[in-house]
Write a structure and sequence with these properties.
Residues 1-21 form the signal peptide. It holds the Pfam family NMT1_2. It comes from Actinacidiphila epipremni. By secondary structure, this protein is of the alpha+beta class. It has 3 domains: 7-128 and 233-351, Periplasmic binding protein-like II (D-Maltodextrin-Binding Protein, domain 2, 3-Layer(aba) Sandwich); 134-229, 3-Layer(aba) Sandwich (D-Maltodextrin-Binding Protein, domain 2); 361-472, Beta-Lactamase (2-Layer Sandwich), CATH 3.30.450.410. Helix content is 36%, strand content 21%. It has 17 helices and 22 strands. The protein has helices at residues 50-55, 57-69, 84-91, 102-114, 162-173, 189-198, 210-216, 241-246, 248-267, 269-280, 284-291, 305-320, 336-342, 346-351, 393-401, 447-454, 465-472; strands at 7-8, 31-38, 72-79, 97-101, 119-128, 134-138, 154-157, 183-186, 203-207, 221-225, 233-240, 298-299, 327-328, 361-362, 369-370, 377-381, 388-390, 408-414, 421-423, 428-431, 441-444, 461-463. The strands form 6 sheets. The chain has a 6-stranded mixed sheet, sandwiched between helices. It has a 5-stranded mixed sheet with strand order 8-7-9-6-10. Strands 17-16-18-19 form a 4-stranded antiparallel sheet. β18 and β19 form a beta hairpin. α3 runs parallel beside α4. The longest helix is centred in the middle third of the chain and has 20 residues, at 248-267.
Length: 473
């Protein structure tokens, strides 16, 4: 992986060098300030940002390091909405460690290489092997039923982001030119969300957690599930090479802290969701959709070959947006630090694609252990300190039928076609009368996914959520 090759390049609009700091304020025995750029609301990065900051693990690791080397360490946390300003600050020498998505990571590498301020990716935060971290949504009640309906429409996205990549690829698969056949607006996520609600755009393509938040709040409906692309998308940690060379022990400390935060996320998912919600203003139920057991995001810091290989397929999209040309960034993916942090178990962990935090437990409705991630469902009762695991979506519907809706905080089910976890009350439901009772009702993120499934299941048909609950009962 140290020699991972991909063709990428520098943007046409280059970022100027604004400084050349190293993150240090003194020599031996002095104060070292580590500047960390993160995206609090991009909740796939919480183990290197929001959650890590709230837990204080990095500071504790640095305190321990300081007792060994005589330095005093401070952390300067800098919060941004997207990866672009983090890259700008990194190539200016003003951020030492940053976290961002796969497309911004490529731009980070390309700009760093061209401006001779190289960076390297040292770990992964959250990933989804099929691409489910990105979603295209429309306004509730929209007449749009699939991406084909976007011809001639206005679509908001953030150019250069993974969400834009999902949109471009999905449109191209349908023979739609994203530059000529629709009006694509380059907007920050919050601006695009407001535009969708105001009716000034017809659809919004964004990354976690914007689609889930808008859908949960009844402000949007899913149009396209990024998992339909079946191409990995992920977020990772990048460091300035000069800083990593000068302060390798600090990078080791950061990754040790990231691993601690990942372990905390897996061991205390509800508490972690509440911490992130408190820091960001996001509903905890939305954070849990992505970051909870069996969530849309899998958290594993190792540099998996499947994720790195996806970089090569990202480059043409960035090139089409004139964000990159061609440049050798063969040393960008560097597993030296994370391999050292994980230790002897690294090779096993990097080879595993199983979610280390699956939905598990005993189903109180249908009985038996919850073991199949393809059907495992979950209910989070309001105010509860534990969730209720269910073996299948049909079992979940039966649970909902037996409990008042006022007592349900959120209910989660996996898309029967793509596996993307979604809110049961906002899913598209189908019923197959010929199926066994525990498998009779099937949920989907989008109508497009449901249609694909129905085409292979004669006799099955769509029902609304209320009908599904009543029928399952």
């Amino acid at each position: 992986m140290r020699k991972f090759l991909v063709a990428a390049g520098a943007a046409a609009l280059l970022l100027p060098l604004a400084g050349c700091g190293s993150g240090t304020d003194g020599g031996s025995g002095g104060t070292v300030t580590v500047h960390v750029g993160y995206q609090s609301k991009t909740i796939n990065t919480v183990t290197a940002g929001t959650l890590l900051r709230s837990l204080g693990y990095f500071e504790r690791q640095l305190d321990a390091l300081g007792r060994r080397d005589g330095h005093t360490y401070k952390v300067d946390w800098q919060d941004y909405a997207t990866g672009a300003p983090i890259t700008a600050q990194m190539v200016a020498g003003k951020i030492d460690v940053g976290s961002m998505g796969d497309y911004p990571l490529l731009i980070n590498a390309a700009r760093g290489a061209q401006l001779r301020q190289p960076t390297e990716m040292v770990s992964v935060t959250g990933y989804n092997l099929r691409g489910g971290l990105n979603t295209v949504v429309t306004a509730p009640g929209s007449q749009l039923t699939d991406l084909g309906g976007l011809r001639g429409k206005k679509v908001s996205t953030s150019i250069g982001s993974a969400a834009d990549g999902t949109l471009v690829r999905a449109l191209q698969q349908r023979g739609i030119d994203p530059d000529k056949d629709l009006h694509k607006l380059n907007q920050q996520p919050a601006v695009g969300a407001s535009a969708l609600q105001a009716g000034s755009v017809d659809a919004l393509s964004q990354f976690v957690a914007w689609p889930g938040q808008l859908v949960f709040e009844g402000k949007a409906a899913a149009l396209y599930d990024g998992s339909a692309l079946d191409l990995p998308t992920f977020h990772g940690v990048t460091v300035r090479t000069a800083f990593a060379t000068e302060r390798p022990a600090v990078v080791d400390a950061f990754l040790a802290a990231q691993i601690q935060a990942t372990d905390y996320l897996h061991a205390h998912p509800l508490e972690a969701a509440r911490k992130v919600a408190s820091a960001t203003g996001l509903p905890p139920e939305v954070v849990y959709l992505y970051n909870g057991p069996g969530g849309i995001a899998t958290f594993d810091p190792t540099l998996k070959p499947q994720l790195l290989a996806a970089f090569a397929q990202d480059v043409p999209v960035l090139a089409s947006e004139k964000l990159v040309g061609k440049i050798d960034i063969s040393h960008f993916a560097n597993d030296t630090f994370i391999r050292r942090a994980v230790g002897a178990d690294y090779d096993r962990q990097v080879a595993s694609l199983a979610n280390p935090a699956p939905v598990a437990g005993t189903d109180p409705v249908c009985g038996g252990a919850v073991t199949d991630p393809a059907t495992a469902s979950e209910v989070w009762p309001k105010g509860a300190t534990a969730t209720v695991p269910l073996r299948t979506p049909s079992c979940l519907l039966r649970y909902l039928a037996a409990h008042p809706a006022s007592g349900i905080g959120a209910a989660y089910v996996p898309d029967a076609l793509t596996g993307t976890r979604w809110f049961a009350g906002h899913a598209v439901w189908a019923v197959d009368p010929s199926a066994a009772p525990d498998a009779r009702y099937q949920p989907f993120v989008t109508r497009e996914n449901a249609r694909s499934w129905l085409a292979k299941h004669p006799g099955a048909h769509l029902v609304d959520f209320a009908q599904a609950v009543a029928g399952a009962a």
